[in-house]
Amino acid sequence: MTDRLALALPSKGRLMDNCLETLAKAGFVVSKVGSARDYRGAVQGRSDIEIHFVSASEIAQLLRQGDVHLGVTGEDLMREATVEVDHRVDFAGKLGFGHADVVVAVPACWLDVRNLADLEPMAMRFRRQHGRRIRVATKYLNLTRHYFARAGVISYRIVESLGATEGAPAAGMAELIVDITSTGATLRANGLKVLTDGVLLKSEANLIKSKSAKWTPELDAVSDGIIRGLVRVGARVA
Q: What percent of the chain has pLDDT over 90?
């Protein structure tokens, strides 16, 4: 890491587009350096900031490790990637885009399972009948374990899913899922329903500050300037 502030931004998709648009409104016009495939960028008129374009999940890892000072990624990815996350990073501002909920969804035909309190008794019955635990398909291993433990749900095992999680029950790979959803339409199309108390996290894109990075008073000042600019255009600071 150099003496410039390292800012990691999403490398593709709507999240990148929204991020660049919001930063530009805040006075930080970002462009890629070199070819269109290059993963480096620069802020117009700011030699004290270097831009790294990486995937949203990688940004969470870089922030956790202190390899960048600031990053924009989903709160869900940051909390999944980091144990005791509030000791490792500061959620400096909610940016107003990238909204999605991490939810527990079960087959809609499970009429007697409406909330988490119903899940453990059903899981115990399932184990007696089938000789195995119910399976939960998810990529949110840490969030799921923490949320289920708080709710007293223990009779399950996780099946790690890296894509198309909503199709896991229909494919016979799992009995229920923990996944991210924006509207719930995809869940409903796959015959699933969200438990009444099954929202683990209401996530959106955040500007996140690493506590593990090497900070100087000068870099703190640059960071504060970026945060103030984003607040002016609607970011919500915790």
A: 91
| Two structure tokens written together for 48 | 């004290």
Which tokens belong to 238? Answer: 């915790």
CB 139 within 8 A of CB 102: no
Residues in the chain: 238
With tokens 């398909």, the residue in question is: 137
- pLDDT for 163: 85
Question: What is the dihedral angle through the alpha carbons of 227, 232, 234, 238, rounded to the nearest 10 degrees?
Answer: 40
The token pair at 57 is 């999940």
- Could you tell me whether strands 5-10 and 192-203 are parallel, antiparallel, or unpaired per DSSP bridges? unpaired
Q: How confident is the model at residue 113 (pLDDT cuts 50, 70, 90)?
A: very high
Distance CA 103, CA 184 (A): 10
**Rounded Cα–Cα distance for residues 160 and 123 (Å):** 19
| CA distances to 71, 199, 227 from 204, in Å | 13, 14, 17
pTM: 0.91
Helix (H, G, I), strand (E, B) or coil at 220: helix
Cα atoms in the 13 Å half-sphere on the side-chain side of 232: 12
The DSSP call for residue 59 is H
73 vs 81: CA distance, rounded Å = 11
The residue to which tokens 């940016």 are assigned: 95
